[in-house]
Amino acid sequence: MKSIMEQISGRMKEAFSAAGYDPKYGEVKVSDRPDLCEYQCNGAMAAAKAYHKAPFQIADDVVAQLNGETDGFTAEAVRPGFINIRTGGAFLAAYLEEMAADPHFSVPQETEPKKIVIDYGGPNVAKPLHVGHLRAAVIGESVKRITRAVGNDVLGDVHLGDWGLQMGLIITELKHRRGDLAYFREGASEFPEEAPFTISELEEIYPAASARSKEDEAYKAEAMEATHLLQMGHPGYTALWNQILAVSVADLKRNYERLNVTFDLWKSESDAQPYIPALVEDLKARGIARYDDGALVVDVSEETDKKEIPPCIVLKSDGASLYSTTDIATIVERMKLFAPDEIIYVVDKRQAMHFVQVFRTVRKAGIVKPETELVHVGFGTMNGRDGKPFKTRDGGVMRLEILLDEIVEEMTKKIRDNKNVRAEDARRTAELVSVAAVKYGDLSNQAAKDYVFDTDKFTSFEGNTGPYILYTIVRVKSILGKAEAADAAAAEEKGTLLAPASDAEKALMLDIAGLGQAVYGAYEELAPHRICAYVYQLANDLNRFYHETKILSEEDAVRRISYLRLLSLARRAMELCIDLLGFEAPEHM
Ligand code: ARG
Question: Which residues make Cβ contacts (< 8 Å) with residue 229, sequence separation at least 6?
C-alpha cells in the first residue's frame, strides 16, 4: 500500500501540475515544525529558481488548486513559500483502516527483494560470551529482522571464530594437563566419544593458556606448532577440535537463545579454509597479489584516499593465512553457496580498516560482482558508568550470562513488589523485561557511538527504556482485556475508526500512520535506533491519550469501540516494533 506521505505527495503533485508547475516539486515530508503542521511541502522554494517567480506566489497557486478536506488534508501557503499541511480526521481514520487490512501493516515491501547475508555475532569458540559480543548480537539480530521485514531474503550467519592460534593454545594446554589422552598419542586413530572437558573447564583453559603463552616462549612455539598441525589435519587434534566446537556451540546457542538471537547459519572461519589454496593461486596468477618482504599482499590504496590504506596481507612471510585471508575466502564461499546481492557485517568499528582492505581486495579480484554491496555496520564500545570498557566489580571481563543474571535478579524483585504478576510467573516475566532492558538500552543509541551501560537507567519503568515500552504495551493489553467481550470483538473485527475527537487522539493516529516510514527509514540506514525513537514517541502519545480520555466509560458505544480499535492498532504497531528490535512483551508486569 502507499504510505500516507506518498498519498499526500500524490495529491500535491497533481496540484503542482494543475497550477502549471512540474509535479516533481510536490514531494511532501514530515513537518520540522510539529507545532505548526503535520506534513510540509518545500517544493515551491525549489521551483522558484526554475520558474523565476517568488516562492510564495507558486505556493499560493498550488494551494488554490486544492479543495480542503475533500483532498484528505488542508494546505496553507506561508511565507516565504512553504506549504503547511494538516491531515483531515476522516482521511487519517481511513488510512489506518487501510493499514489494518494490509498484510504488511503498511510496511513497504521491496519490489526487487535482495538476497542478503548478515554476518553478526562473531563469537570465538572456547571463549565465554562477554559483553563485547553483546552489541554484535543485539544490533545484528535487529538489522536482520528489519531487512527481512521489507521483503528481502535474509540469512543470518554467526561466523564462528574457530580457527587460528586460540585453538592451538587450548590443545597445548590440554596436552600439558592431560598428556595421557588418546588425542596426543602418536599414531592413535580412535578417540573418546565424550569431550574430556566441560564448558566451564574449557573457559578456564583458554585464559590460562593465553596468559602462559605471553610469558613462555617455548610454550607459545608449541601452541603455534599445534595450530599448524591442526590445520594440516592431524587426526587427534582434529578430533579434539571437533569436541571443543561441539561443547562450545551448545553453550553459545543457550546464551543466544536467552537473548532471543537466532542464526540461520552456524558457519565458521574453518569452513572457509578449503577455499584458500585456490584463492591464493588465482590472486598470484592474475597478478592481483604481489610479494612484499616475503608476504603476499594486495595493493588496495586509491588516489582519492584521505588517509593511507595499507596493502591487504593475504599470506604472512611464513606462508600462514590470517584474519583477512579467512574473510576473503568466506566471501568466495558465500558467493558460491548463496550468491548474495549484499553482505552486511555487524562488527566492532575498530575493525573498519580490516573491512576496507577486505572489500577492496574482493572487488579488485572480481570475487564479487561490481553491483554486490558490501557493508560494514561498525558499532562503538559499551562502557561502564566510569566511561571505561564495561568490567565486573573486581575488574575482570564481564560474562554476558552473569550480567543478565544480575539484572534478572533485580527485575524479579521489582516485579514481585509491583504485585501485578502471579508469584510463579515473576521470574519468567523478569527474563522478558530484562532482555528488553538490555537490548533497548543498546539499540536506542546510534550503533556507531560508544555508550554507557547503566543498569539502573536501563531497567527503569520510566523514561526512554525497554521496560517503559513493555509497560505501555501491557497497559493497552489490560484495557483491551477489560473491555466487555462484545466491545472488544466489535473493535477487533468490524469496528470502524472515527475521526479523532481530541488532539491527543489525533497525535496517536498520526504516529501509527507513520509506522511504514519509520521501518523503511530504519532499513535504508540500517539503523535500529530509528525504530526505538519511533516506538518511544508512540508510547508517549499513547499514554497521553490514555490519561486524557475516558475509554471504557465512554457512553457513546460507536466512539467507545472506535477507541478500542485505535488501541488495538497501536498495540499492533508497538508489537511489530519490539519484534524488529528483538524482544517480546509479557502479559502482565
Ligand atoms: N570473531 C571476531 C572477533 O571476535 C569477529 C568476527 C566478525 N566477522 C567477520 N566476518 N570478520 O573479533
Answer: 237
The answer to whether the beta carbons of residues 542 and 476 sit under 8 Å apart is yes
pLDDT digits (tens, 9 = 90+) for 204-249: 899 899 999 999 999 999 999 999 899 888 999 999 999 999 999 9
Residue with cell 539484572: 407
CB within 8 Å of 127: residues ≥ 6 apart? 166, 203, 206
- From 119, 163, 166, 206, the mutation candidate for ligand 1 (largest count of ligand atoms within 8 A of CB) is 119
List the beta bridge partners of residue 82.
78
Alpha helices in 425-484 (DSSP H): 426-443, 455-458, 466-482
C-alpha cell at position 177: 594437563
Residues 6+ apart with CB under 8 A from 536: 444, 464, 468, 469
Distance CA 441, CA 457 (A): 8
Q: Ligand 1 pocket test: which of 347, 354, 361, 379 has the largest number of ligand atoms within 8 Å of its C-beta?
A: 347
Q: Please tell me the distance between residue 159's alpha carbon and the centre of ligand 1 in angstroms.
A: 7
Q: Distance (Å, rounded) from C-alpha 302 to C-alpha 206?
A: 40
In sequence order, the 6+-apart residues with CB closer than 8 A to the CB of 16 are: 22, 23, 24, 25, 26, 43, 47, 62
Pick the atom of ligand 1 nearest to 355's CA: 11
pLDDT digits (tens, 9 = 90+) for 370-394: 999 999 999 999 998 888 877 777 7
Q: How far is the CA of 355 from the centre of ligand 1 (A)?
A: 11
Atom 2 (ligand 1) nearest CA = 122
Nearest CA to ligand 1 atom 7: 122
